[in-house]
Design brief:
This protein is of the alpha/beta class and about 270 residues long. Helix content is about 45%, strand content about 20%. It has 11 helices and 14 strands. α6 (about 145-155) links the parallel β9 and β10 (about 160-165).
Length: about 270
């Protein structure tokens, strides 16, 4: 009986062990997505504190396509790429511009959106173009690590660059007259100008090349990257980005059309 009991115990432990391994595999099979939930309407939180927005819906559709449960991890901007490098996330979807410097650290999918920089200027600043901002005594607010930040460092040598942690802080600086302008993408500038019409103006004059957004993966993760690229093509062809626009960005799309701007998702994949 003792021997039979011992065999039964060992058998149970083996079963439990297999069960535990299976559980680990199921957990690791989740698609872990690093995303900074501080950029509405793309990456934000709903009233209950859950991830919401354009990018959230996009990655949920990607997860369904891959047959993997999606887990979104709210990550500070400067921690997004390290989260891939350290294996804490499988992908980054956070309105991230594809740049050559970032390509040295991660691999990118095909672009799924295009963006251009614009200026949110204080109404009393006299800023009508990028050259007006590149003057001694002018102050330009930028979000740390953003392409606006990089552009300012490379091209606004005469202005004082104020580096802040997030978009909202940059907007406040401009609205309160502590900075003359804030460099960020056109859509963000449009929305913040709508929110602060009495203290700001939006300056949309193009002054740089189009900035494509992509999904970032760990260097060398070609299998996942190939699957993402196939998904982007399928999602585009089936009107996925049109549905996201109708749900989250209908007013902005109308305004962009009136301004003669290319829409974010008007791409040929």
């Amino acid at each position: 009986m003792k021997r039979l009991f011992a065999v039964l115990v060992i058998s149970c432990l083996v079963v439990l062990g297999v069960g535990s391994l299976t559980g680990c595999q199921q957990t690791s099979d989740k698609l872990i997505v690093a995303m900074e939930l501080a950029y509405p309407p793309f990456e934000t939180k709903d009233d209950a504190g859950n991830p919401a927005g354009v990018s959230v819906d996009f990655v949920k559709a990607l997860g369904a396509y891959l047959g993997r449960e999606v887990e979104i991890v709210n990550t500070a901007w400067d921690g997004l790429i390290p989260s891939l490098q350290t294996g804490k996330a499988h992908i980054v979807v956070s309105s991230m511009t594809i740049t050559e410097a970032r390509r040295q650290e991660v691999d990118f999918s095909d672009p799924y959106a295009n963006s251009l920089l614009a200026i949110l200027a204080n109404k009393d600043s006299g800023i009508a173009g990028i050259d007006d901002l590149n003057q001694p005594g002018k102050k330009v607010a930028v979000k740390t690590g953003s392409t606006g930040h990089l552009y300012a460092l490379d091209n606004l040598k005469n202005a004082e660059v104020i580096v802040l942690a997030d978009e909202s802080a940059c907007v406040v600086e401009v609205a309160q007259g502590k900075a003359d302008g804030f460099l960020y993408d056109q859509l963000t500038i449009y929305r913040n100008n709508q929110n602060h019409p009495d203290t700001t103006v939006a300056v949309y004059i193009p002054f740089q090349d189009v900035e494509p957004w992509g999904v970032a993966v760990k260097k060398g993760d070609t299998g996942l990257l190939d699957d993402i690229n196939l998904f982007i093509k399928k999602y585009t062809a089936e009107g996925g980005f049109d549905a996201l626009t109708d749900k989250h960005l209908k007013e902005e799309k109308k305004a962009f059309t009136e301004l003669g701007f290319q829409w974010f998702f008007d791409l040929n994949h």
